[in-house]
From TrEMBL:
SUPFAM superfamilies: Thioesterase/thiol ester dehydrase-isomerase. GO terms for molecular function: fatty acyl-CoA hydrolase activity. Transmembrane segments: none annotated. Belongs to the 4-hydroxybenzoyl-CoA thioesterase family. It comes from the Bacteria. Keywords: Hydrolase. It comes from Sphingomonas aracearum. Coiled coil: none annotated. This is Acyl-CoA thioesterase.
């Protein structure tokens, strides 16, 4: 059985992320998710695949659990759930310590960097995002 390899990204909170209510504006979470997913891709994919492919977001579904504040130490954990054709489905959990601040389900389209048309990833590239977790 394969298990997604978690990728953790430290989130820097900028004063511009803070809204009129004194906490992080909802739109900032989208920026964080995009940064975290792209960082995940660059960290685990081979350099050649990174150079040949781009990612565009198709859909984000965010469940906000708790407010985030300027000086919070925040980590986004990204998991690639599955790849279907040129689409990838991700789960990103944003936490402050053990507290879940937001959970995000998102789908992305892989593009050929040259043609900007949807592109399927090679199975060998996809496998780099999962570990074999055979319980023998």
């Amino acid at each position: 059985m394969s298990t997604a390899i978690p990728h953790r990204v430290s989130i820097g909170i900028d004063p511009a992320d803070i809204d009129f209510m004194g906490h992080v504006n909802n739109a900032s979470y989208l920026k964080w998710v995009q940064e975290a997913v792209i960082d995940h891709w660059r960290a685990l994919a081979p350099a050649e695949a990174v150079a040949q492919h781009l990612w565009v977001a198709l859909k984000h579904e965010i469940t906000y659990r708790k407010p985030t504040f300027l000086n919070d130490d925040v980590i986004a954990t990204v998991l690639l759930e599955k790849v279907q054709g040129a689409r990838a489905f991700y789960e990103t959990v944003i936490k402050r310590g053990e507290e879940v601040l937001a959970e995000v389900k998102s789908s992305w389209c892989c593009l050929d960097a040259e043609t900007l048309r949807p592109a399927r990833l090679a199975q060998g590239v996809i496998e780099r995002f999962f570990s074999d977790n055979d319980a023998r």
